[in-house]
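[Target chain]
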Amino acid sequence: MHCLRQRYGGNLIHSYAGPNMVVINPLSTPSMYSEKVMHMFKGCRREDSAPHIYSVAQSAYRNLLTTRQDQSVVLLGKSGSGKTTNCQHLVQYLVSIAGSTGKIFSAEKWQAVYTILEAFGNSSTSMNTNASRFSHVVSLDFDQAGQVASASIQTMLLEKLRVSRRPEAESTFNVFYYMLAGADSGLRTELHFNHLAENSAFGILPQSKPEDKQRASQQFTKLQAAMKVLGISGEEQKALWLILGSIYHLGAAGATKDGDEAGRRQFARHEWAQKAAYLLGCTLEELSSSIFKHQAKGLQHSSSFRGGSDDGGQGDGSGSKITALECLEAMASGLYSEVFTLVISLINRALKSSQHSLCSLLIVDTPGFQNPRLAQQQRGATFEELCHNYTQERLQTLFHERTFVQELERYKEENIELVLDDIESSTSLSVAAIDQASTQALVRTLARTDEARGLLWLMEEEAVQPGGSEEAMLERLFSYYGSAQGENKGANLLLRGEKPHLFLLGHSHGTDWVEYNAQGWLSHAKHNPAAQNAATLLQDSQKKNISGLFMGRASGATVLSGSIAGLEGSSQLALRRATSMRKTFTTGVAAVKKKSLCIQVKLQVDALIDMVRRSRVHFVHCLLPKAEAVGGGGEPRVTHGESADSGLMTLDVGLLRAQLRGSKLLDALRIYRQGYPDHMVFSEFRRRFDVLTPHLTKKHGRHYIVTDEKRAVEELLESLELENSSYHMGLSRVFFRAGTLSRLEEQRDVQTRRNISLFQAACRGYLARLAFKKRKIQDLAIRCIQKNIKKNRGVKHWPWWKLLTTVRPLIEVQLTEEQIRGKDEEIQQLKQKLEKVEKERNELRLNSDRLESRITELSSELADERNTGESASQLLETETSERLRLEKDMKDLQGKFDTMKKQMESMEMEVMEARLIRASELNGEMDDDDTGGEWRLKYERAIREIEFTKKRMQQEFDDKLEVEQQNKRQLERRISDLQADNEESQRNIQQLKKKSQRLTAELQDTKLHLEGQQSRNHDLEKKQRKFDSELSAAQEEVQRERSLKEKLAREKDMLTGEAFSLRQQLEDKDLEVCAVNLKLDQLDAELQDLNSQESKDEASLAKVRKQLRDMEAKVKDQEEELDEQAGTIQMLEQAKLRLEMEMERLRQTHSKEIESKDDEVEEIRQSCSKKLKQMEVQLEEEYDEKQKVLKEKRELESKLLSAQDKVRSGDIETEKRLRKDLKRTKALLADAQIMLDHIKNNAPSKREIAQLKNQLEESEFTCAAAVKARKSMEVEIEDLHIQMEDISKTKQALEEQLSRLQREKNDLQSRMEEDQEDLNELMKKHKAAVAQSAQNLAQISDLQAQLEEALKEKQEIQEKMQALQSQLEFQEQSMVEKSLVSRQEAKIRELETKLEFEKTQVKRLESLVARLKENLEKLTEERDQRSSSENREKEQNKRLQRQIRDIKEETSELAKKEAEASRKKHELEMDIESLEAANQSLQADLKLAFKRIGDLQAAIEDEMESDDNEDLINSPPGRRRYCFDRSDDEEEEEEEGGATQGSYYSRYRYGSHVKDDDGEDRHYETTS
């Protein structure tokens, strides 16, 4: 806090907070954003630059160029904290520094873009006079050279309802005020603005203050100029003004109330509505029907989308309650939404480009946190402000995830133990209260469940619920996320407000509590057809400029679900962004809920977060220095003119502290300082910083293959002499403390700079030597030309030379003509080859285009299949979760059923005992009638005792219950006291925890300070060692300089001695010159004597002169002929040289073109074939695996469900029926046995009782067997379930293994591709080296030819020397002057020096050839190594393919096992069916037994009631035997003839009883 206050007081609004940037919005406009400041940050690293918003842009741009990965900059903060302004600065810096191809993106164009966006998307609010009311993403696409290739803007979450409805003391969008104030007379007349309305239903009125009007007029002029800059034509501008004017006139027209006399929805003032219809290009009736008619039908349709149709008259949310004003507002908001989307499309049209782009940089700007209480407004926040706050919360969650969660997970993966303070949780709790979805979000239902869900889902449910209201929505929200009455704000982030429709939500980790007013929120969740009719109204307009614009937009998918605008773009990156956003809206829950108005808010934010998450994110935290509240008079509480000299007093410390706590910047800074924020993979670190340790490279050699990267990195770090506490070795990467990697980068830059300087020095030396050699060759050539000219003068008058010069050109002309004809033939052949190659190239281009189109089609199909697969997998997951829940419920019910079964068995045993007691009492009464009274008295006494004991037990139970209740109340009191104590202790513990955290933080800070001191000491020690080494080197250099000085002194002495000797020699030479002059004087005297002698012979002299003149004339003629012949020879030689050079150039260019074309064709063919094969194989494998898995899953689930249903329904029902029948049979048989026990003297009755007992035992046995069979079946079914689960688990494991192997395969393929690229680069280098060697060999051959020519010249010179020596001897004999001899000797020496120079040049060329051969051998070795590594990669790929094949075989074996399990299951189902048939037969037998038992009981009762019972008992046994015989015969007749049992019952009752028993016995025997 102190640091921020000090910097802000010094007008330094930017500060670093670890990897993040903190910007405090200044009260006055600072002058720190000029072009000069931009160039100060160009090319700088983050560590070398001061905190500035330009440094963030430079860092993102530098990372984009180095890593070729997408970057994004996210701006976070409250409303009015300067996010949009910083966004403009970021774009301005990137466009001006990076530049663009062809300069199509200029700062003027981007200024025009933001002028239009501010006009159409900004308005004045209570917290900011120019607040953005929409979220947008600026996408800058960069090409291979790092220049801006194309750009686009995507917008979302437009607050379109602000056109018609807004909070008090806030304005609508700026463009309306600009248009009302700045339109010229012609435009005013066309828009019918000559007479403005006094009031408006939308509150759009012209500004009253003159200065505001003047400012708005200037802004309108600026807006029109910006549209011209972006290429928006006049007709397009006119269409925009017409639609905006119609919105104004609709507000002036207004709407009638529902309770008027007509009772219809219509306009209040039809003249203004007529103006609006005229501007829109439609009739008043069409406009009125689009707004007011078919409302109930549309709303009913929207509500019946998710469930059945209830009575429309019930509840508050029915379609008939919508008002005319709401319809009008919906139409206005729909029109403005279409206009805004059109404006974004026109902007993207001006920004798009067809150039190829490599990666992109995204800048995310959203409206900041909104809190009306911060602006001292006594109102609740609106739904739009909730949406903007929700977006900021999601971005804060992304910041928390990138800063804390991913770092800690990375430390955990790399086994790095790092002691950190307790990091608080993210803002997921407040986010969940808004957007948490239920597990049954895919199910369209109207039922209100108890499962927790967010506010957006509750709004959607209550809007379509027949009786839904805001009160019910808030009650459900508080039941899910609310706190109890006694809890404080820290315990929960959702609290009730003072009024019914108010609630408090804690944003930013509970540091910013916003009070929301939910009144009328359900209208946001209801579809209003008027808003949807706006688009069709514009498309069907009679004005061509309006209909043309919107019909063109309707043909292209520029808007996603009516939410996200700006998805145009033809570049690859723009299409990828649009595909990503569409995927967010078409997968999972979004595919079902994308039409919902509330869920669209969540889906838009999901699309934004998903797009940002794919890149490397840079966060900029914008802070608000103080709250600027508007009082009653409309004057700001804090003025903007406050100067920066007030320093520390310009900050609201409490507000700033709350923002720091809410953004968790201190925690991020702490984890940045205590942890290891910089990390690199071992191989990358070794490759990057290997230049710092040249001794290791010399030690291992240049071609050393690293086997253990970790060991190599450890050795590298040891040689760099880093502290152990400044880095940590993980499993796959090395981690560094903050600042360590930047220091290493700086050292690397220094070393690289030094190496480049040495390389430049070597190159410059080589070039200087080449220039010197060239100068020497030129000097030699000049001397040669001079010598040839001198020779030509000597032989010019020689007749044989004349003959040679006349004959030789004729011969050479014939030879050159033959060569020209050969070259022409070669040119024709090469042209034919070139045409053939061009044809093949065009065919290959067509094939490549066709294959690329096929690849794009396959990729789109693959994306569609993946989307459908993901949605199906989500549906499958929901079904599996539902099935698991039902299985759990079934297990619970099964347990309850078992307990009830046990209770029923115990009750049956008690009933049996009671019946036996009763039977014994009855037996006692029948045996002895006398003792019956006593037993009855005992029975009555026992009943009275039982009742008395019951009353006593009830009294005791009541007393005990009262005592227990008193004890319970006392315990509850004690528990409440203990809870209060516990809460107090918890508060104390939290305070102690905070103290301990603060102390640990201070301890960590001291530790860090200590580490910093240690590192500083370490650096000082290193500097001391370096200074010592430099000192020793300096001392050695001083000693060396002393020795050199002494050596130079010695050399100086020697030179002085030599100079003295040279002076003496010079004096000797002077004496010799004097002697030579004397000789010359003597010779002159002799010459004068000779001249005097010649004067004597004048006649002879005249003859000699005449001969001399004749000879001179001949010499002149020969010289002229020689000059002509030399000119012709020179011309022919020049023509020959030109032809040869042209032919050589053509041959080289043609060969190069052929080679490049062959390489391009081969590369295109290979890449296309690879891509096509990979795509086809991937598509086939994914499609087959997906179809197979889905088919198997469906079959198994259907079989399992059918088996469960059959077993569950059939077994449970049959078991219940059997048990009921068994109970009834047991009771009846017990009664029959009791009744038959009375007949003691009857022998046949004993037999019947025995038969009945046998039948009972057999029935119990069969029932037990059936129960046992059922249990065995259940056990087998459970075993089958277990087997199925094991199979599914093994299948999942194999699928995971297969996916892992697939990923490994992909990694290996990527490595192979990288190795292939490296190999291609090496081959290119090899080809270049071969070409260079060929050129060098050609140079060597040329030099050898020159050498041979020089040798020939040497021989000729030697011959000439011999001739000259002979001439010299002759001249010496003939007393010629010595000057000629000395000149010839100088020529000889010169030729000898030339010969030595040629020898040295030959030696140097031979050494160059040897070096080139060595380089060629090294290149061949590198190629062999690359080929061997490629072979190893191929072998590894084959091994992986074999593993994949084995896994496929294992999956096939598992499929076989599944088939076998299904076969077993089928057999068990057959067994179940057979058991069901047996159960049915048992049920039939039981029914027959029931009938017979009933008849038996009736017969027994008749026999007991009959008066002649004694006659029946005393009757002879023959009659009874006759009866039994009759019954047996009748039974046989019944079985054979099918006679009814009713006749037997009527004729022979007692006999039929025995017969039935016998028949039943026989039936059970057959059944068992």
In short: The chain is about 75% helix and 5% strand.
